[in-house]
Amino acid sequence: MTTRYRVEYALKTHRRDQLIEWIKGLMAVPFVLHSQPTAIFEPRKESTEHMTAVAQRRYLEIMRDVEELINDHIAHQKAGTHDRSKLKMLVPAVGIFFTPLNLHDAFLYQDNRRFISYRRFVAPSFNDIRLILNTAQVMSLVRAGPLELVTFDGDVTLYDDGQSVSPDSPMIPRIMQLLMKGTKIGIVTAAGYTEARRYYERLHGLLDTVHESDLPSIYKENLIIMGGESSYLFKFSSADPDRLKFVPRETWLLDEMKMWQESDITTLLDLAELALKDSLRNLRLDGQILRKERAVGIVPKPGHKFCREALEETVLVTQKILEISAVGRRLPFCAFNGGNDVFVDIGDKSWGVRACQGFFNGIDASKTLHVGDQFLSAGSNDFKARLACTTAWIANPTETVQLLDEIAELDGLVERKNR
Ligand code: IMP
Ligand code: MG
């Protein structure tokens, strides 16, 4: 029993998203009952069309039902009883919803692109549902309009792991379009540096385009970078050679963040460093410890690639050690697997996004969208942003581009309707 528990629960739940898995389970029923693989033997075309129509109708009914369960959960949130909502009982890991989700319409939208109801051999998948949830989120944000703040993770969201936003990145015209509409943009990354130059190296294509554009300067200043999860704030500045100006911490720290003690920060990083050193030794990792002012990590020796298992083991062990420590209960931290490194940062992206909202004079969670690639419950750093705003979970930069196109398309539809 113990072994089974460890394998099925303790060791695997962090690799699953309960809400997505639950919806996937619901969708499996119409798939099994209505998506007949035998239709390929049927001579008449109508039977396939009929099957598709029935499957789609059933999928849509489920989407509508889930949409209503979420509305009920939101009503419970408002009454302070969301622990007792029906959805919470069905999906205990479910958190806070800052907006309703237009799941019915989002399914139709994605069905037209991914042909989910037409499929007879492949059931609605994790990725289908992840993308439906993203579409449902942006539909609801855009329809309630305007979307005031979009925050982006860096690696894997805006550029491939360890790469940069080059001048020909398809991200640039899309982010420019958002800025032109007056939307605020925050890049909320774990990458933690005190010098603007390091961020310029990663984002030069975007920063130079904003600099050279004829956007009014108040719009240009709507671009900010939050580094080290929630530690270093920079704002766009044409006058600086690196196009960024450091914003002193005392001017933007939220009241709760002001309570974080320097002595606790040192204690937590010392403890994390010990845990990381242990993993380095035990797993014979070919890497070294990198200690910074507000972070500590293991980075590989040049040219070396750590295996996924070693990265995950390191994160989970370190996280557990910190979680049960006294200092880990006083101070927010984020231990995550960066693809080929492991870092423990002081603070997390919920604080990073909240600080961005505060910097722009208090933007509401329901008007903010965070786009990122790391949403598993352990070892992932975008996950915490769910506490501060609505989110979209992308798998690579191409999906970020598609998401931004969806926002622009939906925005156009809403504008035409209002005209
Ligand atoms: P993100 O995906 O934009 O959040 O960036 C995460 C990556 O930034 C990590 O995988 C590291 O390679 C890099 N990085 C550089 N400095 C730091 C730091 O101080 N903390 C965490 N990650 C860092
Ligand atoms: Mg990332």
Q: How would you summarize what this structure contains?
A:
It is built from 16 helices and eleven strands. It folds into two domains: 2-143, no CATH class; 147-419, 3-Layer(aba) Sandwich (Rossmann fold), CATH 3.40.50.1000.
Please, could you describe this protein's structure?
It is a single chain. The protein has 419 residues and is α/β, with parallel strands linked by helices. It has helices at 2-10, 18-34, 45-79, 86-90, 103-114, 126-144, 171-180, 196-212, 217-220, 249-252, 255-258, 262-282, 308-323, 326-330, 349-359, 397-418; strands at residues 149-152, 184-188, 223-227, 232-236, 244-247, 287-291, 295-300, 333-337, 342-346, 368-372, 390-393. It has a 7-stranded mixed sheet, with helices on both faces. Helix 7 links the parallel strand 1 and strand 2 (184-188). Helix 6 (126-144) packs parallel to helix 16 (397-418). The model has no long low-confidence stretch (mean pLDDT 94). The structure holds inosinic acid and magnesium ion (MG). Residues 153, 155-157, 372-374 line the site of magnesium ion.
